[in-house]
Design a protein that fits this description.
It is a single chain. By secondary structure, this protein is of the alpha+beta class. Helix content is 49%, strand content 23%. The chain has 2 domains: 142 residues, Jelly Rolls, CATH 2.60.120.10; 51 residues. Helix 6 packs across helix 9. The radius of gyration is 18 Å and the shape is elongated.
Length: 194
């Protein structure tokens, strides 16, 4: 649980009572590579913290699997829209590596807000940070080339090294062939600099 609380305290300092309340609504879950932890068409009732592993949120468009988001160890992943509107989601969550998750019961988490204003503030601050990430991603798609988006993604080396190229390509909004060209071009540019 300490890893989860360390993550939370990046946003909001928590009291021992806050931590105890959160701990009571959490469970530890072992997951396997390629396991779907939330399916398309289901409603979301859980927020996941990745102690270890890599996960993604994806959806299908015209029968093609499209990656929307990657989460690495030490981060949260959730289908936020479904959590908030309590409706079925057109997206799924899949593990891309074996991992260990802390599953937070979202319904019980939201119920804590009335008793623990600090936890409500924590959630709002996390949502604000997530919103900014979404805006940055949309602006990146609007204003940057696929080559520039790939260069930005290279900063997340764990993603590049451990995620199948088809998921990286769909996340960047390009084909695998285009990604191969960009990678080759990037490697040529890097080798000329050394």
């Amino acid at each position: 649980m300490q890893a989860l609380f360390d993550y939370f305290e990046q946003f909001q300092r928590l009291s021992d009572a806050d931590k105890q309340a959160i701990a009571k609504i959490c469970s530890l879950k072992q997951v396997k590579k390629n396991e779907i932890i939330e399916t398309v068409g289901s409603s979301s009732k859980t927020i996941y913290f990745l102690k270890t592993g890599i996960a993604r949120i994806f959806y299908y468009k015209d029968g093609i699997d499209v990656t929307e988001f990657f989460a690495l160890s030490g981060n949260l992943i959730a289908r936020v829209k479904s959590l908030l509107n309590k409706k079925h989601s057109s997206k799924a969550i899949q593990m891309l590596a074996d991992g260990e998750l802390i599953a937070i019961d979202a319904t019980k988490f939201f119920q804590l807000f009335d008793t623990f204003p600090t936890i409500e503030r924590l959630f709002r601050l996390i949502l604000e940070a997530s919103y900014l990430e979404v805006v940055e991603r949309l602006e990146s798609i609007q204003f940057h080339s696929a080559k520039e988006r790939y260069a930005d993604l290279l900063e997340e080396m764990e993603i590049i090294q451990k995620v199948p190229l088809k998921h990286i390509a769909s996340y960047l909004g390009i084909t695998q062939v285009s990604l191969s060209r960009i990678r080759a071009s990037h490697q040529e540019t890097t080798s000329f600099k050394t």
